[in-house]
Design a protein that fits this description.
The chain is mostly beta strands and 153 residues long. It has one domain. The chain is 0% helix and 56% strand. Strands 1, 2, 3, 4, 5, 6, 7, 8 and 9 form a 9-stranded antiparallel sheet that branches. The radius of gyration is 18 Å and the shape is globular.
């Protein structure tokens, strides 16, 4: 369990649909639980507060994922983790609805030390779908504390 705060710098261009172009503050909690059989559950409730609300309202969200990790070489080496994420997002203005999305995704460790990971998924709106695009998402994580980018392959 952890509680965190973040500062999000202004990026993108709101007129083009690329980010808000406005700095914001965020606060969230994260909880993870490893269940028997290498099954995991992750929960992350949070809130985003833009500097100026004319660029977007304050929003609350809940992200939850369930998946299972598969490892070869006796739990060493590559770790493969298919998962399903469900995301709820709601503007904190009166009369708004909660938008729900589902994200089937897959994460794999790229090196044998399991500290460099990549993932990809496909975000699909499941309600109020008009004007809400489907999105390909991806990330790359390098836990640099355990060694250089080219070590442990």
């Amino acid at each position: 369990m952890s509680v965190q705060a973040e500062v999000v710098f202004a990026t993108g261009d709101q007129r083009r649909g690329l980010g808000a172009g406005e700095p914001s503050l965020g606060f969230f909690a994260a909880y993870d639980q490893l269940l028997p059989g290498q099954v995991f559950v992750q929960l992350q409730p949070g809130i985003d507060i833009p500097r100026h609300t004319e660029y977007g309202p304050r929003t609350a969200y809940l992200r939850t994922a369930i998946g299972r990790s598969f490892a070869g070489d006796g739990e060493l080496g590559r770790l493969w983790s298919p998962m399903l994420e469900v995301i709820g997002n709601r503007d904190l203005t009166p009369g708004t609805k909660t938008d729900w999305d589902v994200v089937p995704e897959f994460q794999v460790t790229l090196n044998r030390r399991q500290r460099i990971r990549a993932a990809a998924g496909y975000r699909l709106p499941i309600n109020d779908t008009a004007g809400r695009p489907k999105q390909v998402i991806a990330y790359f994580i390098w836990d640099w504390f355990d060694g250089g980018l080219f070590e442990g392959w």
